[in-house]
Amino acid sequence: MKGARAGIAVLAGLVLVGSCALFAGGPVGGSDVAQAASRSPMTFRYPIAADPEHLNPFRSTTVATRRIINNVYEGLVTFDPKTSQVVPELAERWEISPDGKVYTFHLRKGVRFQAAPGVTYKDREVKARDWIWSFKMFLSGDTAVSEHPEYLEAVKGAKAFTEGKAKDVEGLRALDDYTLQITLEAPNHRFLYDLVNAYVVPQEAYEQLGAQFSNHPVGTGPFVFKEWRRDDHITLVKNPDYWQKGYPKLDVLTFINVPDPNTQVFQYRQGELDVLLDAPPGQLAAVKSEFAGEYHELPGLNVRYLGFKWTAGPFKDNRALRLAFNYAINKDELWNVLMEGARYPADKGVLPPSMPAADVEGYPFDPERAKQLLAEAGYPGGKGLPEITYYYYASSATEPTHAAIQEMLRRVGIRIKLKSEDNTTYWSHIGEDEVALFLSGWSADFEDPSEVFNFLFYKGRDDTKYDNPEVDKLIDQATATTDPAKRNALYKKIHEMILADVPWVPLSYSKVFYWVKPYVHDFYVASAGTYRTPMKYVWLER
Hints:
Layout: H1 2-24, H2 31-38, E1 43-48, H3 63-69, E2 77-79, E3 86-88, E4 91-96, E5 102-107, H4 128-138, H5 158-162, E6 172-176, E7 179-183, H6 191-194, H7 203-209, E8 223-229, E9 233-238, E10 252-257, H8 261-269, E11 275-276, H9 284-290, E12 295-308, H10 319-328, H11 331-338, E13 343-345, H12 367-376, E14 388-393, H13 401-412, E15 416-421, H14 423-429, E16 437-443, H15 450-456, H16 469-479, H17 484-501, E17 504-516, E18 520-521, E19 539-540
Parallel strand pairs: 1-10, 14-15, 14-16
Antiparallel strand pairs: 2-3, 4-5, 5-7, 6-7, 8-9, 9-10, 11-17, 12-16, 12-17, 13-17, 18-19
Family: Belongs to the bacterial solute-binding protein 5 family.
InterPro entries: Peptide/Ni-bd, SBP_5, SBP_5_dom
Subcellular location: Cell envelope
């Protein structure tokens, strides 16, 4: 914590430099000076419930970090804001070999890394070599450097590089400054999707900023980092050198920390926020009614769950106990009654309902069955079962669901203790063996089961540490299957096997809902959620 505070002090010193760079903009004089001075910068005020842990693109694992860095960093490809299909971004186009293994990307010329205080470039234009350096960083086997080698694990030689058995990645080649060739080990139907979050990062910024890099992002994107005052706000400003002419349309993008949803609603009502992303528990219907013309809703791609630690504690090797939790919790009461329909009860499995292979049989609310299973688990009436601590993150602390879950479990004989932790501590702590029961969630970027299976149920990647070699084999097989019908049949089998293992209590599937002021235009939201909204298109009419 002490080190983080020191970092903020340094960054605050950089604010004035960034501010001058923005509004100096270029040479102006005479009446232009007066016009520029009189024009208010177009500022978008965006609430965030939680401070991100950091802003390091190689280690971004949460929505809180991704919501910010999506506006600073860019990949070879991105999602179309209206269709969610993969479209070119820093690659102008690409070809795929007939065997599906070789991708040749033709890079956009004239893309420049952002100017940043304390960073000196040899060459600011993005070239093929910059992509190779960035991709090798993502593939690092050191979790202090990267937490996302999986984005590029399909590349030939990636595994050997990540494991420290090779100095280079065999499948990465710069054919010239503007042509990047990537060879895969095998065909991979999701490879282009994985590239969306594999950003290009300037080596000079990473090396010259050192420890500050995690708090001071530098990319090619439409917005440039200006300042971060912990637990208060993060400010991004327009990138004056952005490659896409006319974008971004906003001058300033300010993410304001508003952890209390009551305060969010108040500030939105007062005109201090341009978008509202949450409503206080018990007030959703009232807020929808108050701002009916500004309300939007669509099915989302997030799944929320209670995770059971697979490697230690009371749930290890005790399937009956895990099942007892599933049957004891009334999800309909949690989400349709207590939370006024804020999310869909998870009455199926681990996939959001809109995904292929999502239609499997879940575990319904059945407290009598839960009591039977608790006895089968070795704890009749709960006798002999120690109190279990249920961990949840602070930004969900105001929800009544935690106490309701505690009461539902108590009714079948299970005692749990509620423990909230601040968001920064929480996401690293729940991976430890001492945390047997925890609340978590996962937001997919697109409607494919691999978005859940490959990241949460493959080789122990989830914080539950769930690991089933038979499931791993089938996931590998499905990933390499290009025929959608055959692939989805495999995913259905995988889904049923995971449910039979019971690593979670699936709690709910998301609704993406938000309110946006009438003067806000082109705020595009897809099922993945508002965190993926490309803010470069947004503009204000007021």
